[in-house]
């Protein structure tokens, strides 16, 4: 009961929260970044622990204020004090080294966290008790390795899908399924869209020439169904494809990804915006008639169960064409094939282009936005708090 009462304070503010993230603070903002922001807005002091830094020039542990105006967030960078390659040769030695690493991080912070919230599926820290916090949460949002199946001695386990928690065979902690969340920028955008009196198509505007299709995501990701994506682009030369996300190739990138990127960047109907802010994407959103999700579920580590970008798409009100996602299979919110494979996805896309006016009906847009708004991160924090207090 003590931990439940204490956790109310954690989520309402004035606490020290350590978030362990498998992705750095810079770059694409996903669930752990948004939880960090919401927790900071509530008055908590948030330490955002980036994954280990492999750069040789990196020494020790560095703490810096993040570029965030609504609360206190400090990013923590570190390079392991021992050769990181040990992880792939001796897990026992690696865990001993990381236990010492945790103590060194605490010494650098100058204080113990009152709550540790760990999103890391790669198990950098095998035992969350090393940080000495009052409560520990393990929150994998992507599938864990079959060889990594413990709950890290967490007090509570959270995840976006039951298929992930089922892999944690050594887990006796209370578990809650929390769907993907909608960040505050898109939440505010959706609220503004609902205030408009649409007339049956894009907020009262006419469908202009060209029709614009938006895609947001890392274009270097292995899980993209590149043949289906390219077929959709080439089958619709009069449609303008606006692609937001990293695409610049670097040494060592797989040949098929490089060839695909070189192909689409030379298409007249494709515009690569690169990695841009959410504010920039939302500035472009009113011009987008249709959003696209195009993953190969056999390459997706989560098997096509869900995608966090869908809520952001839905918050704009515009229709979404997607490969079949388990989380939305019965919702009627997405335009999808009826099967996991994408053989029919280009045909589904073509049909959606023909039905754009109907897909932009006032009622359809409202349903998409209202669904997205029910999944804000502040709402999720309230659910998590109630779960822990139960």
Helix content: 25-40%
The main sheet orders its strands as: 3-4-2-1-5-6-7-8
Largest sheet: 8 strands, mixed
Category from helices, strands and their pairing: alpha/beta
- Quaternary class: single chain
What share of the residues does DSSP label as strand, in percent? Answer: 15-25%
Identify low-pLDDT runs: 198-205
Overall average residue pLDDT? 88
- Number of distinct beta strands: 13
Give an overview of the whole structure.
With 390 residues, this protein is α/β, with parallel strands linked by helices. A hairpin with a 6-residue loop joins strand 3 and strand 4. Helix content is 33%, strand content 15%. The protein is globular. The strands form 2 sheets. Strands 3-4-2-1-5-6-7-8 form an 8-stranded mixed β-sheet, sandwiched between helices. About 2% of the residues have low confidence. It is built from 13 helices and 13 strands. Helix 5 packs antiparallel against helix 12, helix 6 runs parallel beside helix 10 and helix 9 crosses helix 12. 39% of the residues are buried.
Q: Which structural traits does this protein have?
A:
five-stranded parallel beta sheet; 15% strand; 390 residues; eight-stranded mixed beta sheet; globular; alpha/beta
Short description:
The chain contains 13 helices and 13 strands. With 390 residues, it is α/β, with parallel strands linked by helices.
């Amino acid at each position: 009961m003590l931990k439940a009462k204490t956790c109310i304070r954690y989520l309402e503010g004035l606490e020290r929260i350590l978030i362990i993230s498998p992705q750095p603070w810079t770059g694409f903002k996903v669930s752990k970044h948004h939880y960090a922001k919401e927790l900071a807005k509530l008055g908590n002091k948030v330490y955002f622990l980036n994954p280990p830094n492999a750069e040789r020039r990196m020494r020790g542990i560095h703490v810096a204020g993040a570029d965030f105006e609504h609360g206190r967030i400090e990013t923590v960078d570190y390079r392991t004090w021992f050769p990181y390659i040990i992880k792939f040769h001796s897990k026992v030695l690696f865990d001993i080294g990381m236990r010492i690493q945790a103590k060194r991080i605490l010494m650098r912070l100058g204080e113990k966290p009152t709550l540790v919230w760990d999103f890391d599926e790669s198990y950098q820290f095998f035992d969350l008790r090393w940080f000495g916090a009052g409560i520990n949460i393990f929150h994998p949002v992507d599938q864990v390795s079959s060889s990594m199946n413990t709950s890290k001695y967490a007090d509570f386990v959270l995840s976006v899908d039951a298929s992930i928690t089922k892999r944690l065979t050594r887990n006796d902690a209370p578990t809650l399924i929390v769907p993907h969340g909608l960040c505050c920028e898109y939440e505010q955008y959706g609220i503004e869209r609902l205030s408009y009196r649409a007339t049956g198509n894009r907020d009262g505007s006419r469908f202009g020439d060209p029709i614009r299709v938006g895609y947001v995501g890392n274009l270097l990701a292995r899980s993209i169904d590149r043949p289906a994506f390219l077929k959709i682009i080439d089958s619709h030369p009069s449609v303008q494809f606006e692609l937001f996300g990293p695409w610049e190739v670097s040494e060592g990138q797989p040949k098929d990804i490089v060839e695909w990127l070189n192909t689409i960047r030379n298409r007249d109907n494709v515009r690569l915006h690169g990695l841009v802010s959410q504010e920039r994407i939302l500035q472009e959103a009113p011009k987008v008639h249709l959003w696209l999700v195009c993953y190969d579920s056999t390459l997706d580590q989560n098997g096509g169960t869900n995608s966090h970008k869908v809520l952001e798409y839905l918050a704009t009100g515009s229709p979404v064409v997607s490969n079949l996602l388990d989380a939305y299979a019965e919702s009627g919110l997405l335009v999808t094939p009826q099967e996991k494979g994408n053989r029919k996805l280009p045909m589904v896309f073509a049909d959606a282009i023909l039905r754009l006016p109907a897909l932009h009906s006032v009622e359809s847009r409202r349903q998409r936005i209202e669904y997205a708004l029910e999944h804000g991160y502040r709402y999720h924090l309230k659910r998590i708090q109630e779960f822990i207090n139960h």
